[in-house]
Design brief:
Ribosomal Protein S5, domain 2, Alpha-Beta Plaits, binds (3R)-3-hydroxy-3-methyl-5-(phosphonooxy)pentanoic acid
Length: 348
């Protein structure tokens, strides 16, 4: 162990540390990695953090534990999900010769079903790790750390709107962190999330991205056209041009899904209700209600609209067969440390 690592471990806090982070939705999507090992994105992205989708995570280092322990949504988790968190802690500590940790995490929404649970999950864990390891990271360093867990998590460090930057070298992550664009009070928007399935997705985003990059004939064009979309979205956000933001959001979403569908074998994350919902929203729009759809690596449909239209849009969304639930979200806050109550409750 080198002296820096010794110092880091000597600084560990053994008290429980609790952090909260909110999921985010990409308005300009990230899809593709220029390094899988270092988790470096192939393109930048722009997102909106959501108040309604929250992860609360308590982390406690404990010398008495033989191995790391993970409780997610009140269940003990082993295997790959636990190994992924252990690797993340090793990366943050810069060594695997660190005390074992207990991680207790809960989402107030379905996990692993295309509702960005890895974004809020790794953002909350990064913030907790920063506190428990006394790392004193800046927001951008925190974002970079969260990115090592999940690409989209880098954006959940911030409230409101964030942009994930993207470097060019395959082995250098110095430019791969998100920056803050506007905070949650910049603009009151609504994102209505139609949950059409709570099943875990079959093909995770990393596997999907790797397959797409290898096999889609459109991948090069996707990467090359991203800077134009990012530039247009930045200026539409600056001008609070809702129609432009909606059009760009849909464009980026369909470009990403078209890309995924053009892989071999094709990747289709939608179900019947997803498609029906898209038509319902487009039909509503043709009658004058400004609402725009976006989907991620799952069948849920997220509809962007302004607050005055949210009841009308929700009503139309409920008319779609197969909708299990609609979650209404507003722009939400960035990731923070909160009290350690959750851990105390679990252990009492
Ligand atoms: O953070 P990941 O590796 O789960 O990738 C997320 C990819 C999308 O959600 C589909 C798009 C995005 O930019 O969030």
């Amino acid at each position: 162990m080198n002296s820096k690592r010794k110092r880091i471990i000597a600084d560990f806090t053994y008290n429980p540390v609790t952090a909260q982070a909110h999921a985010n939705i990409a308005l300009v999507k990230y899809w593709g990695k220029r390094s899988v090992d270092l988790n470096l994105p192939a393109v930048g992205s722009i997102s909106l953090t959501l108040d309604a989708l929250k992860t609360t995570t308590t982390l406690q280092f404990d010398d008495a534990l033989e191995n790391d322990i993970l409780q997610l949504d009140h269940r003990n988790i082993v295997g790959e999900p636990l190994s992924r968190l252990s690797r993340f802690l090793d990366v943050a500590a810069e060594t695997n010769e660190r005390p074992s940790a207990k991680i207790v995490s809960a989402n107030n929404f379905p996990t692993g079903a295309g509702l960005a649970s890895s974004a809020s999950g790794f953002a909350a864990l990064a913030v907790a790790v920063n506190e428990a390891m006394n790392l004193n990271l800046s927001k951008e360093e925190l974002s970079s750390l969260a990115r090592k867990g999940s690409g989209s998590a880098a954006r959940s460090i911030y409230g409101g709107f964030a942009e994930m930057k993207c470097g060019t070298a395959p082995d250098d992550d110095r430019e791969d962190y998100a920056v803050h664009l506007y905070n949650e009070s910049y603009w009151d928007l609504r994102l209505l999330i139609a949950v059409t399935s709570t099943d875990k997705k079959e093909i995770g985003s990393t596997e999907g991205m790797v397959r797409t990059a290898k096999t889609s004939p459109f991948y090069k064009n996707w990467v090359e056209s991203q800077d134009t979309d990012l530039k247009e979205m930045r200026s539409a956000l600056n001008a609070k041009d809702f129609q432009k933001i909606g059009e760009l959001t849909e464009h980026s979403c369909f470009k990403m899904h078209g890309l995924a569908m053009s892989g071999r074998p094709p990747l289709l994350y939608w179900n019947g209700a997803t498609t029906e919902m898209i038509h319902t929203i487009w039909n509503l729009r043709s009658k004058g209600t400004a609402a725009y759809v976006t989907m991620d690596a799952g069948p849920q449909v997220k509809v962007l609209c302004q607050p005055g239209n949210s009841e009308l849009v929700k009503q139309a969304m409920y008319s779609v067969k197969g909708v299990k639930k609609i979650i209404e979200a507003k722009p939400g806050p960035g990731a923070t440390i909160v009290s350690d109550d959750q851990f105390k409750v679990k252990n009492s």
